[in-house]
Amino acid sequence: MRTPEMTRDDHASSEAINKVRFVRSYAKINLTLDVLGKRPDGYHELATIMQTIDLYDTLCFSILDEDRVSMVCNRPELSNEHNLVVRAAQAIRQKLGLIRGLAIELNKRIPVAAGLGGGSSNAAATLLALQHWWQLPLSMHDLWEIASSLGSDIPFFLTGGLALCEGRGEQITPLAAHWPAPMRWLVLLKPAISVSTATVFRQLTASDYSNGSWSRAAETALQTRSALHPDDLYNSLERGVLEQYPEVAQAHTDMLQAGASFVRLSGSGPTLFSTFATLPAATRVQQHLQARGYEVYLTRPIAANNSEISFF
């Protein structure tokens, strides 16, 4: 016997069913990352300023005439049911009792396990795309609940842009899109290793914890359009990563020698980033590091919903 949910699903508009939908899924950097301490649930309490950047994966969604979700990726090792993209689609189907099948193609450009949130961004993009494409009766709070159940970074990507993220990272306070003009270009370097986020957090010491003041100070500076100094961009995880992973420490040194005025770790790494006021300066550093064999990206911050950033 068919349920009401199935009936509504079957009677979805032919226009929606026949469409193929492409969406972009943007990466992020952690401008700051304060680890406040360990929580009773085993996670760590965080305060972090996150910013989406113009480095993105591309997702293609199409209707599948079977009651399942399939996914293929240009990185074959990611083409499986454990991928957050599939889990996000299944979570929506299960919540609403949908039987409509879905085929997903993922063109991966964001480095994997890099501290740039690629998998989390893919999941959020999937939630938003299906909600809009299939015109589902889901509020943003509904999407937030699904996102939070799948991963701590995913709720941020439901809005993107610039935000203060607290708790496990799932408590989001969107910030006005104010950004220092001397930081308009970003150079990212992904060392040729993977870093386990869980391992990095396990190896934190009490001296790495902070009270959240770095992120609060950065928030105030950005929102009041005050000077934001590189020394203010603190990451509680950076000391441990640089000490435990020589490849990251060497890349950090090489970025400075290539002309970066400062270098910071994004998230739990291993990706490092620096900022530049002009494209020629950023390009020189990018090309120097590429000549040394590094995986390097030249990008920029982007605001939520394709709005404009106010540079100061």
From TrEMBL:
Q: Which InterPro entries match?
A: GHMP_kinase_C_dom (IPR013750), GHMP_kinase_C_sf (IPR036554), GHMP_kinase_N_dom (IPR006204), IspE (IPR004424), Ribosomal_Su5_D2-typ_SF (IPR020568), Ribsml_uS5_D2-typ_fold_subgr (IPR014721)
Q: Which residues form the active site?
A: 28, 153
| Tree of life domain | Bacteria
- Pathway participation: Isoprenoid biosynthesis; isopentenyl diphosphate biosynthesis via DXP pathway; isopentenyl diphosphate from 1-deoxy-D-xylulose 5-phosphate: step 3/6
EC number in record: 2.7.1.148
- List, alphabetically, the HAMAP family matched: IspE
Q: What is the name listed in the Swiss-Prot or TrEMBL entry for this protein?
A: 4-diphosphocytidyl-2-C-methyl-D-erythritol kinase
Please report the organism this UniProt entry assigns to the protein.
Answer: Dictyobacter formicarum
